[in-house]
Amino acid sequence: MSRFIVDCMLGKLARWLRILGFDTIFDCSLSDEELLNLARSQNRWLITRDRELAAKGGYLLKAEGWEEGIKEVLEKFHLRERIRPFTRCPVCNSLLQGIGREEARLLVPPIAFSRASKFAVCPGCGRVYWDGTHLLRMKDIIDKIGGHHEKRKVKGEEPQDY
Predict the structure, then answer these.
(1) H/E element holding 103?
(2) With contact defined as beta carbons under 8 Å apart, do 92 and 122 qualify?
(3) Residue 60: beta bridge partners?
(4) CB–CB of 12/65 below 8 Å?
């Protein structure tokens, strides 16, 4: 299982799990009981720094920084081979959909359109993503935490253009 729900103390971890392609719920409006119930009902791992919450059914993250936290989660849940970076929206968790250049022309700033070659849109929140310099920095971080930034094709999965 590589689906998660992350408590409110771990927002950056949640964002990076999504960047790595893992289905991750992050909602600060949920109570501890709601987090636990959602984790159980949706077959998700609950990740927390709250010892009491972990004792009720979550995984207690021990690492201090977010990069070390990502490394710990990748190791604990044996996820390194399941990384599918840049396939989920880091903001809302929806799967990204690749779009063509002409469709992107109306959705991105002119400078981004002139420099980027690949584009994706989030059907959940409408954000548009492209392969800019930020992507290179993200790939460096992924390499640093011991992941692989190259997307891997999974049987039955459509490759993303972003």
Answers:
(1) helix 101-105
(2) yes
(3) 48
(4) no
CA dist 27 and 11 (Å) reads 9
Domain boundaries, the chain: 3-82
**pLDDT tens digits, 48-57:** 999 999 999 9
What pTM was computed for the model? 0.87
Which amino acid is located at 138 in the chain? Answer: M
Per-residue confidence at 146, pLDDT binned at 50, 70, 90?
A: confident
- Tell me how far apart the alpha carbons of residues 70 and 146 are, in angstroms, rounded to a whole number: 9
Choose among 23, 150, 11: nearest CA to 69: 11
How far apart (Å, rounded) are the C-alpha atoms in residues 111 and 37?
Answer: 45
Assess contact for 13 and 20: CB atoms under 8 A. Answer: no
Question: Amino acid identity, residue 123?
Answer: P
